Amino acid sequence: MSRLVSAVASRLVIIVPYVWLLFFFLVPFLIVFKISLSDLAISMPPYTPALDGLRDFFARLGEFDFENFKLLMCDLLGYIGVGGGLCDSGFAADFYKRPYLSVAYISSLKIAFVATILTLLVGYPIAYGMARAPQSLRTMLLMLVILPFWTSFLIRVYAWIGILKPEGLLNQFLFMLGLIDDPLIIMNTNTAVYIGIVYSYLPFMVLPLYATLEKMDYSLIEAAQDLGCPPLSAFWKITFPLSLPGVVAGCLLVFIPAVGEFVIPDLLGGSRTLMIGKTLWSEFFNNRDWPLASAVAIILLLILVVPIMFFQRAQARAQA
Amino acid sequence: MKSLGSIRRSFAPWADPDAVPYIRVENITKKFGDFVAVNDLSLDIYEREFFALLGASGCGKTTLLRMLAGFEEPTSGRILLDGQDLSGIPPYRRPVNMMFQSYALFPHMTVEANIAFGLKQDRMPRDQIAARVGEMLKLVKLEQFAQRKPHQLSGGQRQRVALARSLAKRPKVLLLDEPLGALDKKLREETQFELTDLQQQLGLTFVVVTHDQEEAMTMADRIAILDKGEVMQVATPAEVYEAPASRFVAEFVGSINMFEGSLQKDKAGNTRIARSDGSMIYTGSADDVRAGDNVWYAIRPEKIGISSRQPENGIANALAGEVYDIAYLGDMTIYHVKLDSGQVVKAAMLNSARLFEDPLTWDDRAWITFAPDAGVVLTR
Ligand SMILES: Nc1ncnc2c1ncn2[C@@H]1O[C@H](COP(=O)(O)OP(=O)(O)OP(=O)(O)O)[C@@H](O)[C@H]1O
Ligand SMILES: [Mg+2]
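The joint structure predicted for all components is written out below.
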């Protein structure tokens, strides 16, 4: 009897995270997917339902409206400039002639990529220094890395406006040192977005890097040096390859949320900073085209699933 | 004590006053904060010598080796290698290689790449590297494991890879930190002989750290016995065993009996030790000790005879007691005899000899006998 209870209990423990995923990931995803298949309508909510209930689902399987995905595809075709007999008429032609969604996707990926590399360049030395610090200092350093999380993300990004704006702290400081005569224009440029992303996502880079570097056996470096390898070369031949799982984990933890980032480009970036998160926002709330915005979100998800799967593979391999 | 160091060759440069040591450790001290790990230590090691550092855990063996390899700078003193002062020379420029206590194999490289690592650092041509790696793999009998990663090897195989890697560069001096520590007894004994063979074959100088005295005895030309960062004695295995310089060394290496007393000369000019219970122990000549000094007479169990019959007169040292304990070791038996003075003395007898002797059992009255020069007189 009690064995039965414990068997059920252990099942339950496994079931809980699945139920969580079902309700807070899969169901919202399906709702968004459903919206992406419906038509725009001037109503509340601003779309006609694509289906109601399961019975409907089978009844109307044939008449789903893939219009929005077609628009997205025409947008992409227009962007790469290949022929589109499909995209000759109506809305599709607008997207085909003036593609802006693809531009935003590509620009997001580019900004996220550059920002990830920058975060790696800043984060690696920090993680390395932490891992080599005396044992007694490490906990405190770790706390310092996590400390910014105690303040609202939004407030921290706002604070950067005060630093980066033309009459902001940075310019005042450089001016005082006599390094510049005219203020640097950083605010409302891509540079400001990079700074914002590097700053905000640094802990996500540092923590996994620190975890792998701290685990590493320092006698390996000594062995390399003993065999005639100078310290810098020993870093590239031993330390770096062994920290690769941490590098991959850190980069994905930064890259994935950075692609869809909305707050940072909205607050720090200029009108010419194109990121898909911003586009998504304006489709949802300015144009109130929920179906199209949902389709954009679904495609974004698909784009990100690829690196996530890569991440999973790398993790599995690191554990094997 | 089973082995007394195989007498492999007539090799004794330390006995030659003209020989120049290859490694000179001069008055080295190493402090970690206030803690003195190595204290004013000096050693001379000769070319092609197999030199062992023997001592209890924490006595500074690894620290000394790390200073030779260049991972620690001495607080004071200096190390000369082939006449060159090594101070300030980083590990990657020293013609010395080390085999680590933990092996420290590179986990992301194959066995082959591990062995080739040091050769690539020297920019050796590719074909020569391949040839040397092949040679090394053959030497440690790991040819069929060349493409494996370290985590796919057994402990003994890993140890051999570490050895091959540290040997690949043909260093002038190879430092080995407990090279056989992780192996089981049988594999360890096999590998001991492989190591000594290798060392002679390649004509290298080995400095081996161990806390296993039997291992040091088997492999080394000379042994340095360390205690608390200081050298207690440097000598061949036979000398260390037969003529220990101090009670510490005598007790550290093998098992021994100690008789304490004050040194005297009798009327006939024989040297003897007067014990507090009034008994006398005759010793070999001890010219460098003054009469009246407090000394210890140290004698190994196998140098003591034991019998149930009282020996005839004329035997210099005969002490009576009771058999207190008997330990059967297969090849020999150790008798623990409680003397009338209360002291327990160990006497070993080979079992091949015991068969013909009268059988002694627990609580039997027994006499132990030994010749004056069977033991040594120690002053400290
Ligand atoms: N980096 C260090 N900082 C402080 N103390 C140290 C350091 N390295 C070694 N010691 C101390 O120096 C002493 C000698 O250490 P060492 O590692 O040389 O011992 P060992 O003889 O190799 O011992 P074992 O046989 O256990 O390996 C020890 O008491 C150790 O605690
Ligand atoms: Mg040690």
